[in-house]
Design brief:
By secondary structure, the protein is of the alpha+beta class. It has ten helices and seven strands. Among the domains are: 1-128, CorA soluble domain-like (Beta Polymerase, domain 2, 2-Layer Sandwich), CATH 3.30.460; 260-316, Methane Monooxygenase Hydroxylase, Chain G, domain 1 (Up-down Bundle), CATH 1.20.58. The chain has helices spanning 18-27, 40-48, 54-61, 112-123, 125-129, 132-145, 147-164, 170-204, 217-280, 295-316, and strands at residues 2-8, 11-15, 31-36, 68-71, 75-83, 91-99, 102-107.
Length: 320
């Protein structure tokens, strides 16, 4: 589906006929063309009428391309990945073709902020007059801004992880591990999005690209700063996850030590009475006190006394 906007008579108007698009571009008018899930005929139109290179068009149809900037004779091809506006952390590829007086955005899935940008330039034509590279900035800026609420949700998950670190119940530990692994996967996914895009914005804000005007470089640097901040937040949260995991291991090790102490204390308490009973249970003929009338009672009292003393000792040591 093609949606196009151009400056006609000083106003931003929607272009309904595709034939008018390349006519306006050739005349020098500023044009923005947005394609969502383009058909084969629309891709042929981009190649044959708008003269986009077939290699760039092939890359735009291949999802999961790495974020990059490629320079062609008549345009720059930019690939970024934007987070969809839900909590599932799904992404979609946004392809931008930035020319002297045109911008073409291509994506396979619906991107919510595309409508916001089109509404903004329609309401304020002076934004579009700043150039197609400024409209590209508006798209990239909203794409970067979507990462902040995602980071906030992750931060909330990490707060829950910290609460669950020292839970001793098995259910608490299971919840901790599930949340920890889920947060780790999301952080890695976000890092794969944010880090390459930071490199893309570094190139776009460098002033070395022919179709990014110098007066708009400051806006691209602003997005670059946002992405630096996001990457810094990601690294901080990764360190926090590692610390939480280490704390969880220490908690498990401490719990295991407590169990071993209790087992050791119980074993020692049981061993002494068993030893006394074992000695007098041997099948030797001559054993002292074997025929003593009070021998049985003395043995029982000795067992109970030894058990009580050992129990008191281990209780004082806080082993039981």
């Amino acid at each position: 589906m093609i949606t196009a906007f151009g400056i006609v008579d000083g106003k931003v108007k929607s272009i309904s006929e595709t034939k008018k698009i390349h006519v306006l571009i050739k005349s020098g008018s500023k044009v923005w063309v947005d394609l969502q899930n383009p058909t084969r005929e629309e891709m042929h139109y981009l190649e044959n009428e708008l003269k986009l290179h077939h290699l760039a068009l092939e890359d735009s149809l291949t999802q999961h391309q790495r974020a990059k900037v490629e320079r062609y004779e008549d345009f720059h091809y930019v690939v970024v990945h934007t987070v969809t506006e839900n909590e599932a952390l799904k992404t979609t590829q946004l392809n931008l073709f930035i020319g002297k007086n045109f911008l073409i955005s291509l994506h396979m899935k619906k991107i919510g902020f595309i409508d916001d940008v089109s509404a903004s330039i329609t309401a304020m034509p002076e934004l579009f007059r700043r150039g197609p590279d400024y409209v590209a900035y508006m798209l990239l800026d909203r794409s970067a801004d979507l990462l902040f609420p995602t980071m906030d949700r992750l931060e909330s998950d990490l707060d829950k992880v910290e609460e669950l670190v020292f839970r001793e119940k098995e259910s608490g530990r299971r919840s901790f591990l599930e949340l920890l692994l889920s947060s780790k996967r999301k952080l890695l996914h976000l890092r794969k999005i944010a880090w390459p895009q930071m490199e893309v914005l570094n190139i776009l804000s460098s002033g070395e690209l022919a179709f990014v005007s110098r007066q708009n470089l400051v806006y691209y640097r602003d997005i670059y700063d946002h992405l630096i901040r996001i990457n810094s937040m990601i690294e901080s949260q990764r360190e926090l996850l590692s610390a939480s995991m280490e704390g969880h291991r220490l908690s498990i090790s401490n719990s295991l030590n407590q169990v071993m102490k209790k087992l050791t204390a119980i074993t020692a308490i049981v061993t002494v009475p068993a030893m006394i009973a074992g000695i007098y249970g041997m099948n030797f003929t001559f054993i002292p006190e074997l025929k003593w009338e009070l021998g049985f009672y003395v043995a029982i009292v000795s067992m109970l006394l030894a058990t009580a003393l050992l129990a008191m000792f281990f209780k004082r040591k806080d082993w039981i």
